[in-house]
Amino acid sequence: MNWNLIGELIRLRYKLMWAKARLRSGKIALFAIGYLLFIMVIALLAAGGFGAGVVAIQAGKAEKVCQIVLSALFVNAVFASLLLGFGMSAAFSEAELRRYPVYARERFVARHFLGIVDPFWLFMLALELGLVLGLYGYGSYSLWDGVAAVLLLLACSYLLTRLLGEWIDRLMATGSGYTVVVVGIMCLSLAPATAMAVFNKHRDLIPKAMAVLRFSPPFGAATAMTHNGLEMFYGFAMLASWTLAFAVLLAILERRPVGQPQVAREPGSLWDSRFDRVAALFGPAMAPMVGHWLRFYLRNRRFRILYGFSLPLAAFLTNNTGRMGRGEDNLFLGALGSMGVVAFIGTSRIAVNQYGYVGGAFRRFFLLPTDPGASLRAGSYAAVFLSALWIPPAAILWAIFAPRPLDPRMIFMPVMNAVTAMFLFHGLGLWTSLYAPRRGNYDKSLGNDMSLIGNIALIGMVLGCMFLPRVLDATAPWTVDPENWWLTLAPAATAIVFYIASLRGATARFPARRERLLAVVEGRA
Amino acid sequence: MTFETDAIRITNLEKRYGATVAVADLSLVVPKGSMFGFLGPNGSGKSTTIGCLTGLLDPTAGSIEILGEKFTAESAPLKRRMGVMPETLGLFDPLYAHEFLGFVARMFGLDEADTRRRVTDLLAALDLTDTRKTLAEYSTGMRKRVAFAAAVIHSPDVLFLDEPFESIDPAGVAAMKQWLRRFTEQGRTVFITSHVLETVERLCDRVAIITKPGKLVWQGDITVLANDGKLEYEGRGFNSLEALFLHLTGERYSDLNWL
Ligand SMILES: Nc1ncnc2c1ncn2[C@@H]1O[C@H](COP(=O)(O)OP(=O)(O)OP(=O)(O)O)[C@@H](O)[C@H]1O
Ligand SMILES: [Mg+2]
């Protein structure tokens, strides 16, 4: 192992990170992330789990506490990373590292060592270390055993995440991979609720499940932290074997190349394109540009995952937010919001960052004999069009599952909310595309490569859709009463006006933003 | 050939990137119908000038006229008469070559029949008949050929080519030179940057040489070289473009004795 070179690479990575942090936008992002972490820690402490944990540790139930906390952190880390893309950014790609005189083994170590010192994983480590300190302070368990176990567990969760990520990337490049991934995500997101229901019915299954879980990495870590002698050794051995197994599998998987992204060859002749036929709806002036953006969206693997996933997600959200409180109409409250999510989640990634994935081709838009803002508008039209396509199926789906007797007003209101959310989000997307762009990788199916503001816009819209109906129901129930169905018309009309104004405003400001955007999308800023 | 109007007229052009001056007070006239070579060392501001001339960058100061009209980034009708091959090519990687060229052709207002005919012609002429590869999967030279095709597909009146010959194979360069000659014979104008001085010497009729930061140091007719004439600068004669270029730009390399 050439540790000198690996050390050099690590230093370079932090230099690059530091160079980013010196920019104004980098500083804002750092500040916001620090703030969010601070809030999360406060929330954790305030949640009461802390006090309960202390009591449990003092009562000798430390192992149980560790099992619960570590499992929760483990599962959350893997999911947050895979679904939201935190901590997935590769500082250096394999191709970049190949420029240096290092062996494959060294590249593997360098890449993953750099991967694990990502702020996200350091944050996870800090949470887990908090548990270790608690055990040490309130329970007189060994500090060093705890630290060692937590470090191994972190490596384990990191490697598992990478393994899953690499596997999904390879799967997505195959013909049926897309369907498998969407179905897989659906099953996984329904799993906790299903498991709860099953365990509630069959209590006798719980010990059996625990017996199986004893072999999982977080339980292994819990054993290692809270026992001595042979049992501690057993816990460490299990953790180490998992880590090693994941590392070996990852190394094997990485050696298999990712297939070429499947770009569906269009049927018919070279010239017969469904994109252009659909785009013709937008009139001769806009058609070529809209057709171009439709292609751009539909060939993107991540768009296709999210787009395909939007209906199941809406069903899941309706069900989950619908059952959050008490009351009769709760599914309806869920539908009021989740129908909105359907209307933007699919296009969200590109819509908040329209030029982030075009790379050097961004220049091309300025060489075309149109006003430069035409590309911005056309991209937005394509996104709105694609989003709008999902609203009717979502409405039909909701009509099937809505409470009987069917009240048409209870269909109309969610549909109007979908219109509101669609225009509001895509209006916001025009602005974030201009003022908060970020260079991303078009071909990646995983990871979060939106800017901070882009993330805030997207996550804010999703949370708004989930909780606003609830809040309104609690504070002003008449606003979500089907009797007042016409009330949903006002926000929809406002959103349309906002969208049109945004089209105008953003187009007008586009030329002034051109050079800044160019620098960002070509990777110079 | 008529030189009655100018194809490009640059007056006191200046472009800064923050504190960096990339082009300082550049004035230049390119006659209609000429094959104009725009030369200078790396980082002297050639691509920046082309960026300003094609609407990609906003000049910090100065004005630009193209085909007798004032040009800004918003001049859509003028852009319809201009073809550009940018330094970084500007290709949409996920597309196939015919899709990309079709998109550009339609954007420049070609009708469907013309679009298809010209795309097919260009792909055949440039030897880009492999339709199963996206632009991302093309080689460097193939990508350059596609960018060249996109620049000429609407038969523009003024053509801007930023390093068109670099990384294209000899047969491709020969073909391109021939098309460009025919292009200027019809009274249309080509504005080329290149570092391959032999090619420029044989192809171009006029040349401008700039040095950092975007300062014009020499311009003139270089067709005299073909008749064993000399290029004049401060009373000295140079019998090749390379000799003049090296003299003007003062390119001197220190000896790397460990290499
Ligand atoms: N986006 C940018 N931001 C800051 N400075 C820039 C930017 N683009 C170019 N420059 C600077 O402007 C100057 C001119 O660059 P330009 O790309 O025009 O040179 P060039 O003559 O085309 O060089 P080459 O022969 O290498 O292509 C250089 O000093 C360069 O560093
Ligand atoms: Mg250049």
What does it look like?
The complex is a heterodimer of chains A (525) and B (259). Chain A has 525 residues and is mainly alpha-helical. Helix content of chain A is 76%, strand content 0%. Chain A is built from 22 helices and no strands. By secondary structure, chain B is an alpha/beta fold. Chain B has 2 domains: 1-81 and 156-169 and 180-252, 3-Layer(aba) Sandwich (Rossmann fold), CATH 3.40.50.300; 88-155, no CATH class. Chain B has 8 helices and 12 strands. Chains A and B meet through helix 14, helix 18 and helix 22 of A and helix 2 and helix 3 of B. The structure holds adenosine-5'-triphosphate and magnesium ion.
Average pLDDT number of chain A: 82
The quaternary structure here is heterodimer
By DSSP (H or I, 4+ residues per run), the number of helices of chain A equals 22
Total number of strands of chain B:
12
Main sheet specs of chain A: none
Keywords:
heterodimer; A: about 525 residues; mainly alpha; globular; B: about 260 residues; alpha/beta; 2 domains; 6-stranded mixed beta sheet; 4-stranded antiparallel beta sheet; 8 helices; 12 strands; binds magnesium ion
Describe how the helices and strands are arranged.
The complex is a heterodimer of chains A (525) and B (259).
Chain A lengths: L2 H20 L1 H23 L2 H10 L3 H23 L9 H4 L6 H13 L2 H21 L3 H30 L4 H25 L3 H9 L3 H10 L2 H27 L18 H6 L3 H16 L2 H22 L7 H16 L2 H4 L12 H4 L5 H29 L6 H28 L16 H24 L13 H33 L4
Chain B lengths: L5 E12 L2 E12 L3 E5 L6 H9 L6 E6 L2 E2 L5 H4 L2 E4 L11 H11 L4 H14 L14 H13 L5 E5 L7 H16 L3 E5 L3 H7 L2 E6 L3 E7 L9 E3 L2 E3 L2 H9 L10
Parallel strand pairs in B: 3-8, 3-9, 6-7, 7-8
Antiparallel strand pairs in B: 1-2, 1-4, 4-5, 9-10, 11-12
Helix pairs in contact in B: 3-4
